[in-house]
Amino acid sequence: MTRSYHFGDFRLDPATRELHRGDAPVPVPPRAFDCIVYLVEHRERAVGRDELIAAVWGKADISDGLLAQTVLAMRRAFDDTGKEQSHVRTVVRFGYHWVAPTSVVEDAPTAPVATIPDAVVAPASATPASVMPARSPSVDIARHPARSMRLVVAIALFAALLAVAAVLGLRHEKSRTTAVSPDAAAHAAIALVLPVDVVAGEGSEWIRLGLMDHVATRLRAAGLPVVPSDNVVVLTDAAHRASGGADAAALAVAAGANVVIEARAERDEQNWHVRLHTQLGRTPPVDGNGASTNVLLAAQIAADDLARHLGFAPVAGAAPAVDRSGLDALLQEAEAAILNDRLDDARALLARAPAAQRDQPEVRLRLAQIDYQAGKFDAAESAFAALVQSVSIEQDRVLHARALSNLGVIAAMRNNTTVAAKRFDEAIALLRGQNAPDALGKALNGRANVAGALDQVDLALQAFAEARVAFESSGNLLALALIDSNLAALDMRRERYAEAIPVFRRAADRFATFGVHAAELNALMGVAELQLALLEPAAALTLEPRLRDLTAQVADPARHRNGEMTRLTVLVANGREQGVKEQLATLLAAAERDNDPVAQARGHALAARLALEHGDAHAAGIDAARAIEHFAAADDAREFARAYMLRIEALLAESDASAASRVAEELSTFAARAGSAAARLYADLAQARTSASPDAAATWYARAIGEADSLRIPLDLREVATAYAQWLIGRGETARASAQAERIAGFASRDFDSALLQVRIHQALGEEALWRSALARAQALAGDRPLPAALAVAPIPR
Questions:
Q1: Which residues are paired to 275 by β-bridges?
Q2: Between helices 437-453 and 477-493, what is the axis angle to 10°?
Q3: Can you tell me the distance from the alpha carbon of 493 to that of 93, in angstroms, rounded to the nearest whole number?
Q4: What is the pTM of this model?
Q5: Residue 106 class from Cβ within 10 Å (0-12 exposed, 13-18 middle, 19+ buried)?
Q6: What pLDDT digit, counting tens, does each position of 705-733 carry?
Q7: Residue 539 contacts by C-beta under 8 Å, 6 or more apart in sequence?
Q8: For the chain, is the Cβ count within 10 Å smaller at the N or the C terminus?
Q9: How far, in whole angstroms, is CA 503 from its chain's centroid?
Q10: Nearest one of 260, 261, 263, 248 to 196, comparing CA atoms
Q11: What is the Cα–Cα distance from 540 to 569, expressed in whole angstroms?
């Protein structure tokens, strides 16, 4: 006997892995289904988080984010919410408890179904790192020229997500009306189809990748999850460049697949013969064979044959209303060119097709997408808009939605968030329930990024969670890495720096596996900048060699400069200043030549900081003023405010208090307009530094230190505590100064400026032994940086 569980309108069948609401099946991601079953079967008690992870994933190193996404998918299956918790209740600091009233029904045994073995376990050496790529893939990460580093990550990755597999997704999502069979739902399998080994003459080069994608499309239509073709191309290309060959086990691990399918196409005098073979993931191996005068039909026959042997039901073979063989061949050949990073060839191929084919919506969408990927945004926008107008929802719901989603991306890139949100919302509404997970995931990711830009955090997190579920169901690990980068960028925006670092690292590791150098660089830049803000310069320094390698491999000059700016900032933060000034001058000259405001703002701010450190206040003032000028375009409130502070410190060092006061007022005006807590903190600090009244200065310092305590960013706290303590020392209030220095004493073992403040305090207090100890610690952290001469004078004992 088998057992099913009934609760409300739902029926849960663990044996067949089905959840029904009434007579309608409810789609549930595999891990979420496993969690539901485990919680239901242990409903008499609360299940601990670690117990649930061990039972479902079989290991303990699952992130809280992944578990939270899985719980969200569970609750969504029942239309439950985190507030109501009518089915799955969160037990705070412990785990989860199934609370829905549940009855058990004993059923007759079901017939056995075919199964696919567990995921292939690669040899210990076959980790994703073993297929480290050597080039960026055909899909680049678009750059927004008017954003500084802290925002360029979110904007760039957001713009790229629609480009990643955007064209390839169309055909396999045309099978959206195909229902997944119960047997197929039981298979916890994700397949990877390798590029086709072609034995043929000239003119068939496109078959290697075009036929690969065609086979993947057909298997996906039968209900077998298949790794997106662009993911496969990037991985196999990286493997060939790294080691001269692609190891199937390593590819499976990197792509998250557990079945690897190799393909061969050969032509004799009459027919094409296509053979598919499960190289990994099935014992004994399974074959699928097909023959036809048309290579696409031969591949379709072979894919259907393989699907049957794997226990899946191929799409019903009803004849199409019109002959699509010529159109399908054209589309696959164009897709092969796109996969090979030959956008011009793909455009030319489609442009010279017969008019009847060029007018087909699929061809028009591909042409628009090619324009988008080539950076021709005006042409792409016009083409997408024309598709929305000419292809009705009734004619092709998914294609209409994809065009809307593309329009949403372009609107977001142009900072038109209102239009972008509207387009994404329209696309999402059309794609729900259409079995088009990649298209839905892209629209949800776009909507999440727009919501994050508008500080609609809950909406952004919800959309990211849904996008993750969609991409997990389609096996698109590259898109999941982009989701991680976008989530980390959102955490940066929310000033949750510690939480953002591991998410950025996870994304960077996945990008490294896929060879997406630009995206990996963006993620690691985020990690380095966050570590510097957390006053962990040595940790950031460990990334410097990889940042150097990545910037050398990125072709886009602006992105190259941005990576180099981060790398130089890391070196300076660690006192490794030899050669930095010369490198910085070269970067700034290039940034000025190319009118790159982001690089100019960052570069002049770093130059001002170096000049102040070495006692050249005049040069520091000039560079700080130029940084302010360009930060107005770069739009990063904290760094903009810190550039103002550099200008103020330079003016004070030159004894120009009136000019410093005027700059402080400018900063206060900016902070009020920006609405940024960080900008407001530095504006208050600027008022304290420039106030002529001791009482007023004390009030401003107290206000700034309170804001720094509230924001809890170590960099901000160090800046305010250092200025406040030095002001108190100057007034002879050493006890109060000591209290301020104590706020950052914990950073003194790793941060040079924090260590210097401890030297000042012990010197002011006359504590010679402690002063010597603090001085030695500061000297150890100094590197090439000079220590203020006054701090080398032994204190007078008190």
A1: 264, 289
A2: 10
A3: 27
A4: 0.68
A5: exposed
A6: 999 999 999 999 999 999 999 999 999 99
A7: 531
A8: N
A9: 8
A10: 263
A11: 10
